[in-house]
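Example complex used in Figure S2.
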Amino acid sequence: MAVYLLKRLLGLLPTLLIVAVLVFAFVHLLPGDPARLAAGVDAGPETVELVRKDLGLDLPLPQQFVRFFGHALQGDFGTSIRSKRPVSTEIAERFGPTFWLTLAAMAWSVALGLVLGIVSAVWRNRWPDRIGMSLAVSGISFPSFALGMVLMQLFSVQLGWLPTIGADSWRHYILPSLTLGAAVAAVMARFTRSSFIDILKEDYVRTARAKGAGEGSVIFKHGLRNALIPVVTMMGLQFGFLLGGSIVVEVVFNWPGMGRLLVDAVEMRDYPIIQALVLLFSLEFILINLVVDVLYAVINPTIRFH
Amino acid sequence: MNTAATPTAVRTPASEFWRKFKRQRVALVAGGFVLLLVLVAALAPWIVPFDAENFFDYDALNSPPSAKHWFGVDSLGRDIFSRILMGARISLAAGFISVAVGAVVGTLLGLLAGYYQGWWDRIVMRMADVLFAFPGILLAIGIVAILGNGMVNVILAVAVFSVPAFARLVRGNVLSLKHQTYIEAVRSIGASDTVIMLRHLLPGTVASVVVYLTMRIGTSIITAASLSFLGLGAQPPTPEWGAMLNEARADMLNAPHVALFPSLAIFVTVLAFNLLGDGLRDALDPKLDKY
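Predicted assembly (597 residues):
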């Protein structure tokens, strides 16, 4: 297991390096001069040159990369062009709301997705399946920003049950996490169903039934464990999807998280923030996939020996 | 599609496909609806009751649906029905072009990677890993930040993140197909690599590529609309559905119908593509993952 873990960790390094190079290159791919962007529109040519020196933009590219990478490792991404505050402070403030929102959405959507998927598979082609799968296909077809607006209109404006914007109490989390998780619940339901249906066709399930095991025992003891193996992988991929989805949902609900920070930064061409956020989002995504792979190896021992 | 002569006939003859597909009534209806949408989108400039961008009914600002304005009027006095019809052109084009570009590039890369393996395979798959290391919409936002706002750049961005999925899919298919006896047979009579790849391996993967492409169009329409909603894609007054929703947010309190119809338009369109994709999958490639 330790060897497998080490191998997986080392395997990440090239990907991480390429991601870092891409994020670094981002500044130089942006239209316009980054020094001028950082100095502001009204700055004179001398100021721009000063800023250029200050940011190290006058150095040769490889040297700039080493500098960027060294600073990034220490969590230093420079200062935001818009607010003039350190990027790390800006992001630290925004990390919590996004993290908790993603986690809340993940928790309910995985639970509901699993239940819907199992129920649909067990009562395949009968009414629970039809209802479950109709819900699921609607879930993947309804864009999150539209769903968010509908929910907000219904529960906050018309009924007045829930707050519209902000992230101050648990009640603020209900609508955004519902919006964010809907598509994931739908994907999980569809995926669990098909994985479960495959498992229920296996010989060992027939054997279990033949020797007289109750239907509950067949489904939960023999079916669920084996059906969960591909579902765990799917869950990891969906977490990445949630990270991306939170960008849109945060804009709808005016959520004080990293997603909205990113959209604002893109609008203002605040490139230090964009760089740091893209790096952070990808790092999270890569780490989650690593955790999923490890989980996968724990559930399914054959993987470890490949 | 006619029989035997088309490449798809190698694995799934058209008649066989049609026999299985026509049994899926939901998918048939969805397919019919997609055709209707394409027709409406193509004819939109000639069938819209009002000019989508330049007609303003100042007496009916924010008015709800009526006989004159089927979907109501927005806060600037524009006819929402006309805007939805014109928006169908943009959303369908964005969804289809981006996925088609991604499919063509991804299929070629996957074909080469699976067939030659070795260093080329490692480079392509490593690049796919890197692209997969960014959540799709994040990658798209990054690309739009570099290239600037606008629908063309959004389509390009969505195409870029469709490439790795197709490359992986095709590579996997090729890896399992290339050890089959018929490929060995072709090779033994001296066929060139190009002929083997294009004439004998490609047809074997077309079915799953078509299924995946259809299922991907829905996602791409949503992504493109999301970017416009965020203000990074189509800009007002363009009647793009995501951009329309963004404009409607300001008037949600007194005119919720302005947001309702673009939402429904996206939902119904994406739903039709997803149902069609499900049906195609069941008829063409039952082994493809169901999500």
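Residues 215-252 of chain A form the longest helix (38 residues). Chain A touches chain B through 48 residues (CB under 8 Å).
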